[in-house]
Design brief:
Protein name: DUF3159 domain-containing protein
InterPro entries: UCP010219
Organism: Actinoplanes awajinensis subsp. mycoplanecinus
Radius of gyration: 19 Å
Helix content: over 70%
Oligomer: single chain
Number of helices: 9
Transmembrane segments: 28-52, 64-80, 100-122, 143-163, 169-191
Pfam families: DUF3159 (PF11361)
Number of domains: 1
Distance between the termini: 33 Å
Length: 211
């Protein structure tokens, strides 16, 4: 019997996190070499454009890669507007703070975001919600994602307040693909531990038919 797909395989989360690390590398390089926000922004945009070109060449969906590019452009514009190098990471800080609130709310109202994401990838829409065991598994695993965002905010916020641009860039890199990889692995483990023995898996929600 074939092994079930992991979350990492379904969501390609590690690859996306690696892509997100490159603009931070470019920003840090430009800022350190020239002590200029403009140079840092240019370095970030060059890296982001390189990622976009590479992904489009490999046939990835344009919308996904262009959203990443838009985020880098907005972050660069914020830093250029305020004249503070650390403000390049303000959007990242705010988005992670908002993610904590949204993910927690989704769990509380029994629409866990992890289920919505995986369900959309698998073309199930919301059919998985009619499987009580899958709903419980997605809810528990979603707390792992909440913890991921909490860790980022806890690290980014004091560094941002202290104006530590270099440390922020380093934290952005370290807390991108390594943290995402850990989050995917742990949340997948939680799902597997929560689903009862004999459950057919994420692709096959067990939906009771009305009598």
């Amino acid at each position: 019997m074939a092994q079930p797909e992991s979350l990492a395989e379904l969501l390609n989360g590690r690859r996306a996190a690696v892509d997100a690390s490159w603009p931070a590398v470019g920003y840090l390089a430009g800022w350190l070499l020239f002590h200029s926000i403009g140079a840092g922004a240019a370095g970030a945009l060059i890296c982001a454009l390189g990622v976009v070109a590479w992904r489009l060449r490999r046939g990835d969906k344009p919308r996904a890669v262009l959203i990443g590019l838009l985020g880098v452009c907005v972050a660069a514009l914020i830093a250029l507007h305020t004249g503070k190098a650390e403000d390049f990471f303000l959007l990242q800080l705010l988005s992670n703070g908002a993610s904590v609130l949204v993910w927690v709310l989704s769990i509380v109202v029994r629409w866990p975001l992890l289920g919505l994401v995986v369900g959309a990838v698998l073309g199930q829409r919301t059919r998985w919600r009619r499987d009580p065991e899958l709903l419980k598994a997605y809810s528990r695993a979603s707390w792992v994602w909440v913890l991921q965002y909490v860790i980022r905010v806890a690290v980014f916020l004091p560094l941002y307040a202290a104006g530590q641009t270099g440390a922020l860039a380093g934290a952005r890199i370290v807390l991108s693909w390594p943290l995402v990889a850990a989050c995917l692995a742990v949340s997948w483990w939680v799902i597997q531990r929560t689903l009862p023995a004999g459950h057919p898996g994420l692709r096959h929600p067990v939906v009771e038919q009305p009598a």
